[in-house]
Write a structure and sequence with these properties.
With 74 residues, the chain is an all-beta fold. It has no helices and six strands. The chain has one domain. Strand 1 and strand 2 form a beta hairpin. The relative contact order is 0.25.
């Protein structure tokens, strides 16, 4: 299963607004009679369109396919 764990509004190079979303794979295991335990796994960044993104630094992301830089808006 994959869950959303973060969402950051950003500005593109042409000053358009876009959102970068961070997802994390999570596995849940439960023993009989016990509540399920969650095991977090790999994370990934993407735009709502599905385009992949990556971290450059704490305030900058890059769209992997195009190389366009995105700046966080705080």
């Amino acid at each position: 299963m994959e869950i959303e764990i973060g969402c950051w509004p950003c500005s593109t190079e042409d000053e358009s607004s876009v959102v970068v979303i961070e997802y994390q794979h999570v596995t849940t295991h439960a023993a009989p009679g016990a509540p399920g335990r969650r095991y977090p796994g790999a994370r990934r960044l993407a735009l709502p369109t599905g385009e992949r993104a990556r971290y450059i630094d704490a305030a900058t992301f890059e769209i992997v396919e195009t190389g366009e830089l995105l700046r966080r808006i705080d």
